[in-house]
Amino acid sequence: MGQGKFIVTDTKGNLLFKVKKSHFKVHDQRVLIDAAGNHIVTLKEKMMTAHNRWEVCNGDSSSSKNIVFSAKTSHVIQLKTKLQVFLANNVNEDICDFRVEGSWTESSCVIYAGESSTIIAQMHKKHSVGSLVLGKDKFMVSVYPHVDYAFIVALIVILDEINH
To answer: First and final CA of the chain: distance in angstroms?
Structure first.
């Protein structure tokens, strides 16, 4: 994703989302845009934090009062991918609302609801025509019923940024 190109299509090749990198802000931001050109969420990395931490805000806002969720690595140094996700109303962050586990280098991650074993989405590298394109890499993402696609895409963008 080094050039800011991140395109999400369905299995038929129809555009679902794209991600734009914004260079005009104090720190880098990513904006998730739907096929109609609407700004869905803005992703911004929090600077000066011990853990790799990102905030995701409604639309094209980057204001902390418009946060939908935040995500952070569970350890400052980690060999395997482990991301904790907290919805905006979870201010204490005692227990995460979602978590991501897996191996980014092997392009295999699972997204769980909270600390449970309930899977809401899975990602793995695909070697044929893909539904998610990260630069030259193609990934297949299986999103379970009643799960917001934009939420899953935002998490994958954060993972990509943390791991590059």
So the answer is: 9
Q: What is the DSSP string of 72-112?
A: EESSSS-SSEEEEEEETT--S-SS-SEEEEEETTTTEEEEE
3 state SS of 15: strand
Taking a C-beta distance cutoff of 8 angstroms, is the pair 69, 87 a contact? Answer: yes
DSSP 46: P
For 112, phi then psi, to 5°, come to -110, 155
CB 102 within 8 A of CB 90: no
Confidence band of 130 (pLDDT split at 50, 70, 90):
very low
Structural tokens at position 135: 């630069």
The dihedral of CA 153, 154, 155, 160: what is its sign?
positive
The CATH architecture that domain 6-162 belongs to is: Beta Barrel (2.40)
Q: What's the predicted TM-score (pTM) here?
A: 0.83
More confident residue, 129 or 123: 123
How distant, in Å, are the alpha carbons of 23, 62, 102 from that of 75? 28, 25, 14
Structure-token pair, residue 26 = 């104090």
Answer for the pair 81, 62: CB distance below 8 angstroms, yes or no.
Answer: no
Spatial distance between the Cα atoms of 38 and 41, rounded to a whole number of angstroms: 9
